[in-house]
Amino acid sequence: MSRYLVTGGAGYIGSVVAERLLAEGHRVTVLDHLSTGFRAAVPPRAEFVEGDVRDAAKWLDRSYDGVLHFAAFSQVGESVSHPERYWENNVGGTMALLGAMRAAAVRTLVFSSTAATYGEPGSVPLTESAPTAPTSPYGASKLAVDHMLAGEARAHGLAAVSLRYFNVAGAHGGFGERHDPESHLIPLVLDVALGRRPSIAVYGDDYPTPDGTCVRDYIHVADLAEAHLLALRAARAGEHLICNLGNGNGFSVREVIDTVREVTGHPVPEVTAPRRPGDPAVLVASAATARERLGWTPTRSDLRGIITDAWEFTRRKR
């Protein structure tokens, strides 16, 4: 049995990963300041500390075997209007966390990164060797942390794995999406089905795709959580490993909306809106590195299953 610190463990992905660690018999401490997370999302068997990741040195000691780092601001639009928040929290917070880990001799870190580090793709599927040219301060802040981890691994022997997510969706038991404000397509469409929103906006229907709408790679949050557990085992001292996480297949905006209609049995009014600047037509991942280095294979790739799990959670959440 190992002991892990999960920063940002009151958020969507962090809560699922914390629950999976507990299910494997590990001890888990969740550190979250609850500015975007929810106390109700913290697994009951986890120790909970309400606090800022920049103060991790107050709680981190040699009894921990590793850290899974999810604590970050993640709204692209907000990062454009308030970039300073993203540099201070995402980059500054990670720098403080690394200092605390160094002082406590905790030498394993799995980092929640993002496909936003790539910016607009030149070709798909995206591999880890694709150029990184983020188009928002959010993506830039995550890329800065990746550079930071590479230096920490070389200089101080950190065993670090960065997992670059594509579109995470679905739910795992009582753990699902609770973003405020919500910006992800599937929960937004489900809210329309429940009558919480009047309609869903389709930003552009004239892309060079089969139905004219953007295509994205959706990954079930439970598959994502499994990758984190595998990353802990694959981490090697002095190495910074980067892995894309995705299904390798894409679903269009219209396919998502139509599947929500089928799953829920509710009408979903939609309105066509202009394209959003910077939205690529297709964004799909190659997860070959994750398969090779982590031994990870997603098993919940069916869009209907992903949406069904998200629908069950959405109907229950307060």
Give an overview of the whole structure:
- With 318 residues, the chain is α/β, with parallel strands linked by helices.
- It is built from nine helices and 14 strands.
- It has a seven-stranded parallel beta sheet with strand order 3-2-1-4-5-6-11, with helices on both faces. It has a three-stranded mixed beta sheet with strand order 12-9-14. Strands 7-10 form a two-stranded parallel ribbon.
- Strand 5, helix 4 (137-156) and strand 6 form a beta-alpha-beta unit.
- Helix 1 (12-23) crosses helix 6 (221-234).
- The two termini are 34 Å apart.
- The model has no long low-confidence stretch (mean pLDDT 94).
Question: What is Rg?
Answer: 19 Å
- Which word captures the global form? globular
How many H/I helices? Answer: 9
Topology, number of strands: 14
What share of the residues lie within helices?
25-40%
For the largest sheet, list the strands in their spatial order: 3-2-1-4-5-6-11
What class would the helix/strand composition place it in?
alpha/beta
Mean pLDDT: 94
Strand portion: 15-25%
